[in-house]
Specification:
five-stranded mixed sheet; 12 helices; 21% strand
Length: 313
């Protein structure tokens, strides 16, 4: 049996191993202490602990010099190997290189964010990190928080403010609402009046089948109501649905701008004061210092803002 197997590992720390390395290389308590920027009494204390730990003198004085014992000579290359691994593998901070990254990323997108940003994010990712793979996961606010807790999302984009404490968020911009409709069909005055707004049938984004939303709550406070004729679950579906139909929809301004050019749709300020909403990028706080996610957050933020400016200059 190896006679050193009963060493209590809880008594070993990096400071002791670093002191042992310095003592064996310098063969002087004074020089070893100076090398590690500690006092000579502290180094002498380290040597005493090391002698107790290894049950060996390690360094013995012969005349004016300190000599390594046989045990110390055996330990020297092993201690150096351990400390080199710590210095070079464990503690070395390597700069993240997107070009060599071949990992997988899970990005949660609300329907709003997917409609606007999925394509340009893919382009930016594959240009910067051509060997990576990415999964876009359609989320709403609640499901995004659940997926983060389950470790199934690296990042999410959407109206995700006021999340749980374990999430970090960075606001990208504030979004406004407008009315969008085919005015060749409806022939309404622009800007849209409150009376015209109530007189026309409405289309609503809702993936639960509910025919009421924030606008309906605001109208109810005034004692009014609108006529919601159609609901659909995706903004892209809504943009295809509105042309040539006698319908008005209250939508985010950037999506309205996205739908106008090739579909002949008209955008008008909303006569109902629908609150603005903020768009965030969110991630787990525990991943704050992960280099790949720092890179991803920056890439997504820049890409999203550039895309929005291209739609709403």
């Amino acid at each position: 049996m190896n006679r050193y197997c009963n060493i209590n590992l809880s008594k070993i720390d990096l400071n002791l191993l670093t002191a042992l390395e310095a003592l064996m290389e310098e063969r002087s308590v004074t020089r070893a202490a100076a090398r590690l920027f500690i006092g000579q009494p502290a180094m002498s204390h380290h040597l005493s602990r090391l002698r107790e730990l290894f049950d060996d003198q390690l360094l013995v004085r012969q005349g004016s010099q300190m000599k390594l014992t046989r045990r110390a000579r055996e330990l020297a290359p092993k201690v150096k190997k351990i400390l080199d691994q710590v210095r070079n593998d464990l503690l070395l901070v390597q700069e993240f290189d997107p070009a060599s990254f071949d990992g997988h990323l899970n990005i949660g997108l609300t329907d709003y964010a997917e409609s606007l940003y999925a394509e340009v994010i893919v382009q930016a990712l594959l240009q910067s990190a051509p060997n990576c793979t990415v999964s876009f996961i359609l989320v709403d606010r609640d499901s995004a928080f659940t997926l983060f807790r389950n470790g199934r999302l690296d990042l999410a984009i959407g109206s995700l403010g006021d999340g749980p404490n374990e999430l970090a968020v960075d606001m990208l911009y504030t979004e406004k609402h407008v009315c969008l409709f085919d005015n060749e069909r409806l022939q309404l005055d622009i800007p849209l009046s409150y009376d015209d707004f109530l007189s026309v049938d409405h289309a609503l984004i809702n993936n639960t089948g509910n025919v009421k939303g924030v606008v309906d709550d605001l109208l109810a406070q005034r004692g009014d109501r609108r006529k919601v004729r159609v609901t659909c679950g995706r903004f892209t579906s809504l943009l295809r649905l509105l042309p040539e139909q006698p319908l008005i929809s209250v939508v985010p301004k950037v999506l309205a701008a996205l739908g106008r050019p090739d579909q002949g749709l008209t955008m008008s300020p909303c006569p109902v004061p629908v609150p603005d909403f903020d768009i965030y990028v969110a991630w787990r706080k525990e991943d704050n210092d992960a280099s790949v996610l720092q890179w991803l957050r920056e890439l997504v933020a820049v890409t999203v803002k550039q895309r929005r400016l291209s739609i709403l200059p």
